[in-house]
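Running co-folding for NAP.
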Amino acid sequence: MRHYGIIGNPLGHSWSARLFNERFERKGIEAEYTLHPLTELTKRTLDDLIRMHRLEGFNVTIPYKQTVIPLLDEVDECAARIGAVNVVKVDWTGDDYRLIGYNTDYIGFRESLLPVVRGMGKRRALVLGTGGAARAVAYALSTPWDAEDWTAWKVRMVSRQAGDSPYDRLTYNELTEHIVRQSRFIVNCTPLGMYPETDACPVIPYEGIGCGHILYDCIYNPEETLFLRKGRERGATTLNGKEMLALQARAAWKIWDN
Ligand code: NAP
């Protein structure tokens, strides 16, 4: 039996175990995937967990995608550029192991997007948040990709604080209705609206949103967040994070099973 899992806090919203275990059953793979909520992430807590379950790989989610990096032995080039890791391969040799970090969020996001952005004109995007998902999304949007009808986007990140970032950055106070009107693609990469706190949503001028907009929420539980509902009510096309989750998981399995 092979063992995989996910670390993060909280994990009540996560569908990853269901997704992987269903896949293992469907494909006749002798493996199990379990949730490991961690209240703190240290070299020691991670080592205990890996050894106790003899993990061969694990996902990393909120809030550890950046803080896990110093605990790894190697980080793949794209994950290093993004500055966030959501997949770790545990490479065992006897009782020793090496930890190698990857990012598959950007793959899942980018692949999920192709069908909806076909034919879109000016490519200006707002990415809400500056955490692990936001970095992967901004990287995916702004990096050239050899796919039909893919043009790199001009990305602006929106944060609660001013500060440095490799992309243009605004605070929520600086985000005007005019900027929202001009940015036809808005991606929620904050946890606002995620189960169980489904009454929350990012505070942006929704009046600037209309039928030419696409609103994308990385959250997949609930299926329609308040952010998406507000967009839909103003005529926008909306997309939740379900497809991204499935596609990033498929890319993770390719890494673990290699
Ligand atoms: P993270 O690294 O903790 O980053 C979240 C970011 O959201 C923070 O950096 C922060 O940016 C902003 N934020 C946090 N609390 C906020 C608040 N109360 N008000 C406004 N902004 C707030 O988390 P993550 O890993 O990027 O995940 C973010 C969300 O995306 C989660 O809901 C996660 O489940 C989802 N996700 C889904 C998928 C998928 O496959 N569908 C993949 C990855 C993530 P500032 O400090 O700059 O404001």
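Result summary
The CA atoms of residues 50 and 56 lie 8 Å apart.
The mean pLDDT is 95.
Job closed.
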